[in-house]
Amino acid sequence: MAGKKKLDKAVSTATIKRILTYIKKYRVGVAASLLMAAVTVALTLYVPVLIGQGVDLILEPGQVDYAGLTKILAKIGVLVLITAAAQWLMNHINNVITYRVVKDIRTRVFNHLEVLPLSYLDVHPTGDVVSRVIADIDQFSEGLLLGFTQLFTGVMTIGGTLLFMLSINPLITLVVVCITPVSFLVANFIAKKTFAMFQKQSKARGELTSLIDETLGNLKVVQAFNHQEKDQEKFEEINRRLGGYSLRATFFSSITNPATRFVNGLVYAGVGTAGAYGVIRGFLSVGQLSSFLNYANQYTKPFNEISGVVTELQNAIASASRVFDLMDQKAIPKDDRDAAKLGQVSGEVTLDHVDFSYVPEVSLIENFSLKVKPGQRIALVGPTGCGKTTVINLLMRFYDVNRGSIQVDGHDIRNVTRKSLRTSYGMVLQETWLKSGTIRENIAYGRPEASLEEVIAAAKEAHAHSFIKRMPKGYDTMISEDGGNLSQGQKQLLCIARVMLCLPPMLILDEATSSIDTRTEIRIQRAFSKMMEGRTSFIVAHRLSTIKEADVILVMKDGHIIEQGSHEALLEQGGFYAELYQSQFAVS
Fold first, then answer.
1. Interior CA angle at 356 toward 354 and 362, to 5°?
2. What is the pTM of this model?
3. Given the DSSP bridges, would you call strands 63-64 and 411-412 parallel, antiparallel or unpaired?
4. Which domains does the chain show, CATH number per domain?
5. Mean pLDDT of 386-396
6. pLDDT > 70: what percent of the chain?
7. How far apart are CA 564 and CA 33, in angstroms?
8. Cβ–Cβ < 8 Å for 386, 576
9. CA distances (Å), 124 to each of 132, 207, 329, 392, in order?
């Protein structure tokens, strides 16, 4: 337990230091905010002095110095106006600083997301990542804004009040100072208790967001398998934990107000008692006592505010620590400075004794070698989990090989820029992806500058033009996130059209026609045949009818090539491929 507390404290301290590095960029604004805070506090604290002087001008009934009171009231009026202007300016500056800091952090987080390796995204729920980028940063901004707005003025008010009280009477000020440590003890107790709860609350909130995102994104599957009750149970379990953490965090933070009010009462009672004694003994005037009582209120009020701010800051720091944890995840290594840029690629690809595994303890691809000539069509077949898609990931350098090398036109792909490598490939996957936007924008995703005529030509090649024309606004029809208003087959046709438009020198087709009906598939295969002419192509397919025309078929099992050759040659061998083929096309 003690070790965990030390760890939480270390995390909190490190997080605060990192927040300050972002704020440092706006130090001029911070200085201006501090100046406005000082002006606000100084003028606010000077008013009780004037009030005390005014009280002393009221000697007794019938003996009032109206001329002196008028001057004092005029001064107070001017000071109130200046204080209001300074406070407004301070709040405006604080808003600008806070939201610019949040903008900087959110921009940096999003940029970092785009360079995270797939290995991180493969093992972390999307909902949790989204929660860190959206909910946690929003929570952080609220705490930071409160910190700027109330922390500066609160601390200055406490210090300024003590100075003004000392100038009136040091003895009574000593009474106030002696009671002050009680407030610090209360604040320290609350801070320790709330940070741990808010940290657990943020984590549970991320789990809940992840579950909701996962369920909504696959609601058809959930309903088809009658998984609603189990998902509901899981939701209730996480929601119960979140509720518990939130309740405890709220409980500890809610004792702030009554606890600090109790301390306020002690301070006010101490000042009132000592001040009354001073008036009786003659070393304090009634006006000075009224000033002291005003200062007693102003002195204790910031403790309420600061205690509330501490609670919010603990929540903000807990949220910020999750955001910084995401930012600290190791990014994909940058390309070497001397990395070559692939130019006009002929399409010669060589895999030389490649070893790779996602998890060190579980081997996947071992001693994999392959030489592909320019323009060849290479088909990868085999049972699920044999490493077909993994080979594609290695070719695109989504993952780097553990041993051996992959070369394109004689260049080790680790020594060329990722951009030039991936630009050389056109990729159509089984899992379709479309962004929220028009159909035209989705087809032109790889070539935003393409003309409408080029987009239409690509759509015709992909046999997508006919259904696009039936859409409400044709190519300008807006589609929802991930093409939710299109069928799976239509989405896949748009993805194929996207590659048709770019026509790179090498192609990767990973189950590219799996969601298309047989008739359309025949037409697409013809389009693919035309597209693949003169281009090196890698085809992953479970339906063996789609790869008969491949130059070389690689039959994979457990990460090894166990057979290779043309379709006819492999059938003649009567091996594993022949068994797979017969299982799909067995004559009854």
1. 140
2. 0.67
3. unpaired
4. 21-327 (1.20.1560.10)
5. 86
6. 88
7. 73
8. no
9. 12, 11, 12, 22
